[in-house]
Amino acid sequence: MADNGGGGRGLRKPVFVKVESLKPGTNGHTLVVKVVNSNTVLQKGAAASPHLRNTRIAECLVGDDTASILFTARNEQVDLLKPGTTAVLRNAKIDMFKGSMRLAVDKWGRIEVTEPATFEVKEDNNLSLVEYELVNVVDE
């Protein structure tokens, strides 16, 4: 009988991970990050395709004391992730964009703005600057 984690014990405490441990193709991460900067990359008012209408996308450099990574913020996430903000990313995942990692939170995760972190972001270890060869590795 498969137990999908609802064993009546309440929610498991999430294990917080450090940015430097993020790997391509992984998800379900919970981490505390500080936003270094944010650049709007897409601001669609009246887009050709209706589902893109009013879509805002920003690339935010976020990180902790181990590393930094670009976070793809969408719509209301853009308003939460202002430079200088500290946030808890729950159930975040790694997307690949042109061979490099981007952190994202989809509808299954959430972003919670929290009290300012005491750490300084390690900007000189930017995981989004690492290019990955797209090789299919079966890791069983």
What does this structure look like?
With 140 residues, the chain is mainly β. Mean pLDDT is 87; it is low at 1-8. It has one helix spanning 76-80, and strands at 27-43, 56-63, 68-74, 86-97, 100-104, 110-114. It is built from one helix and six strands; from the N terminus they run βββαβββ. The protein has a five-stranded mixed barrel. It is globular and about 40 Å long. Strand 4 (86-97) and strand 5 (100-104) form a beta hairpin.
Query: Structural class, judged by helices and strands?
Result: mainly beta
Mean pLDDT: 87
Largest sheet: 5 strands, mixed, barrel
* Strands side by side in the biggest sheet: 1-2-3-5-4
**Would you list the SSEs in sequence order as H and E?**
EEEHEEE
Report the portion of residues in β strands.
35-45%
Number of strands: 6
Number of DSSP helical runs = 1
Domain Single-stranded DNA binding protein Ssb-like OB fold: 22-113
Pfam family, one: OB_Ssb-like
Protein name: Single-stranded DNA binding protein Ssb-like OB fold domain-containing protein
